Amino acid sequence: MKKLWLALGILAVTVLAACGSNTGGAEEAGDEITIGYFPNINHVAGMVAEEKDLYSETLPDGTKVNYQYFPDGSSFMTAIETGDIQGGLVGPGPAMNHFTSGAEINVVAAGSTGGTVIMARNGADISSPEDMAGKTFISPRVGCTHDVQFETLMKQEYGITSDRVDGEMKHVTGKPATYASLFEAGKVDVATVPEPWASSIEAEGNGNVLIDTPDVAYGETLPAAVFVTSHDLVENNPEMVQNIVDAHKNATDFIQENPEEAKEIAIKKIKEITDQELSEEVIDNAWERIDFTYEVDEKHLQDFANSSYDLGFLEEKPDLTGLVDLSFLNE
User: Fold this and answer.
1) Are 207 and 77 part of one and the same domain?
2) What is the rounded end-to-end Cα distance, in angstroms, of the chain?
3) Where is the signal peptide (predicted)?
4) Global pTM?
5) What digits encode the pLDDT tens for the residues 149-182?
6) 245 and 107 in one domain?
7) Residues 6 or more apart from 178 whose CB is under 8 A from it?
8) pLDDT 10s digits, 227-272
9) How many CA atoms lie within 13 A of 174 on its CB side?
10) What span, in angstroms and rounded, lies between the C-alpha atoms of 290 and 255?
């Protein structure tokens, strides 16, 4: 029933726009959209937009804006494809993987770059990447952005691969917010971690930085988060997509212009979503590893997709032509 009402809401927006509405969308109350994001620092634009109600400022009057929080990219992309959410922030890995598998989606903006850190557990007897042979590492999902960044580096620079391809490292998956406790319990040796969870591990003294953001594969060039919507929405309701992108751009500008308030919002939202309260010290440290931007460089995405193919996460060599639509950033 929820999907039916969402579909009807989108249809109403399209019909009104076609009839010459000067608002670029529906005017009657009851129209509804849902935006998704993750509780990590690369997705602060989503937190700021929610806290400041920025989508309501750009969408037509009466539009109800909901938010949904995701633990990983696979569940996010499924929600995009089923229409449970209309847009939001996700890592580039899941977006590219689903696109090459036939998902009709578009990347319409970036969210941030940087923020991936490789952490080693204290007591794991790991002082360099070469020590990873025979060790266990954790990432949010198989083939996710952080997984590909780590495994690309290990394969290209050290010739060490995971057990997915009969390699020397054992791979497990789990939510980043749990990594500190897994380190403390000695259940994993290394984690490929999105911020702020790397800085949290540092602050709690359960691990140390094995490979910092600039030295991780694509660490400072790849969009760590991209803003995705369905191609159907882009084609049939570009006014709505433009309104959504405008709000996202406003959120990114707010972060750049008001970093201290944005940090406070991040602490508050992460506490609400994960029930974990992070200190100002942790957030400050995480912030230094991230650049908040909505600009997208298609070449970096293609290079990253090629690495995903080389690692065996994609069955065919990817062609990302048509994935990125920059027209909404240029309006």
Assistant:
1) no
2) 35
3) 1-17
4) 0.81
5) 999 999 999 999 999 999 999 999 999 989 999 9
6) yes
7) none
8) 999 999 999 999 999 999 999 999 999 999 999 999 999 999 999 9
9) 19
10) 12
